Amino acid sequence: MLMPNLYGNIIGNIACGITGGPGMSSGMNLGDRHAVFETGTRNTGTSLKGQDVANPTAFIRAGIDMLRYLGCDKHADLISDALWKTIAVDLFHTKDIQGEKKASEIVDQTLRNITAIQRQQ
Amino acid sequence: MLSRALLTASRSSTLAVRGLAATAAPEPVIEGVHKLKVTTIPGDGVGPELIYVVQDIVKNTGIPIEFEELFLSEVHWSRSESLESAVEAIRRNNNVALKGAIQEATMLHTEGDIQGLNMRLRKKLDLFANVCHIKTIPGIKTRHGKDLDFVIIREQTEGEYSALEHELVPGVIECLKISTRPKIERIAKFAFDYATKHGRKKVTAVHKANIMKLGDGLFLRICNEVAKLYPRIEFESMIIDNTCMQLVSKPEQFDVMVMPNLYGNIIDNLAAGLVGGAGVVPAESVGSDYVIFEPGSRHSFQAAFGRQIANPTAMILCFANMLKHLHLDIYGDALTKSVLDVIKEGKVRTQDLGGYAKTMEFADAVITKFKI
């Protein structure tokens, strides 16, 4: 979908809302020479500060996007697969997606999955 | 039947006086039943089919309403009534109208004017508030399965729809979004008064004041000022993008929402999608002197033209709301109930709700269920 600024803001948020909320999707800002990677909905999440409950998925995916942009496809795939396994297979979910895990637990599980995948390769 | 005749006969004395005062010649009274005249503006696309459904229901249920039809069109502008005669007709007929969607023409026949007929009609009648009723209808399955009941109040005479656009330099267009203190005060006060009158607890102002600091900043500031005059009603403000996200994940939190023009257009349609689509949401455009009842989602649905597949629920509910507005509550409530009963039963379902019924078949089902 292609659209001007304001509509993009609105539709982007609607789409994020349907697909799991602000903690899940990532977004990228692209120009001719630079690129900035961030969460999809640009929410600061001030109310969640310091409690270890914020869903790290959006930000990790932003990082994965950045690695792909830089051409590090192998590493991007590795982290992406590990994160996918954490959420979709191991079912480690934070509060915003009706789970009880802390943010640090998601990260730790993802690291464990990365090691496991590397061992298989 | 006898009770209905007695009721209408008792009304006829007061209504006859009103009729005599409003028109030059007295209305012909047939069998002691005085009918109220209303204007219909069928519009384009499926509008005429939907208005015909309403007329059919009135004919078969004895609701004391008479219709005066007005052809207003932008696409067929040479055959259209003038705006002045439309206003005159509405004024003549109890200051209310039932309206279908008028299709916006790509090229206007009037030189130098980019404002469409819909906007000009609303501005002429000063219909500053659009009130859209979002209510879950039992029998319509939704993605979220929640019980929703909220109202969207949209300022619809200024904002992004001011038709002030110009091309200073080829390829560079400037579009002016107008926000004025009097109109914002008016819509804010309308929202809080509406909330008070209908026993609502919370008003949410939707804006984008973080980006449009002056335009939406003014809107937010005035809403805050007006909120102080209504200490019993909770007030909160929400940025449009967050509002949209909340609407698709936790829509049950909303009660009354007030917002400028463009956001209202978007949120009206988003919310309509939440309860069953454009075919089921009724709304009204309200001014100080006039009210026009039209479906909440204003789509002419040209693709369905003449195919009898459109869902007339929204138009019928609009008409029921009009009956309540005209103090014909008994008929209005009965009509609303019969529509909701038909949908709840689930036997007669139009295409948008997953069924195969034709528009007129739905109308027949409503007529069958109608009972005072």
UniProtKB/TrEMBL annotation, chain A:
Keywords: Tricarboxylic acid cycle. Coiled coil: none annotated. One of its GO terms (molecular function) is magnesium ion binding. One of its GO terms (cellular component) is mitochondrion. Pfam families: Iso_dh. Transmembrane segments: none annotated. Belongs to the isocitrate and isopropylmalate dehydrogenases family. PANTHER family: DECARBOXYLATING DEHYDROGENASES-ISOCITRATE, ISOPROPYLMALATE, TARTRATE (PTHR11835), ISOCITRATE DEHYDROGENASE [NAD] SUBUNIT, MITOCHONDRIAL (PTHR11835:SF74). This is Isopropylmalate dehydrogenase-like domain-containing protein. It comes from Mesorhabditis spiculigera.
TrEMBL record, chain B:
GO terms for molecular function: magnesium ion binding; NAD binding; oxidoreductase activity, acting on the CH-OH group of donors, NAD or NADP as acceptor. Pfam families: Iso_dh (PF00180). One of its GO terms (biological process) is tricarboxylic acid cycle. Residues 37-366 form the Isopropylmalate dehydrogenase-like domain. SUPFAM superfamilies: Isocitrate/Isopropylmalate dehydrogenase-like (SSF53659). SMART domains: Iso_dh. PANTHER family: DECARBOXYLATING DEHYDROGENASES-ISOCITRATE, ISOPROPYLMALATE, TARTRATE, ISOCITRATE DEHYDROGENASE [NAD] SUBUNIT BETA, MITOCHONDRIAL. This is Isocitrate dehydrogenase [NAD] subunit, mitochondrial. It comes from Mesorhabditis spiculigera.
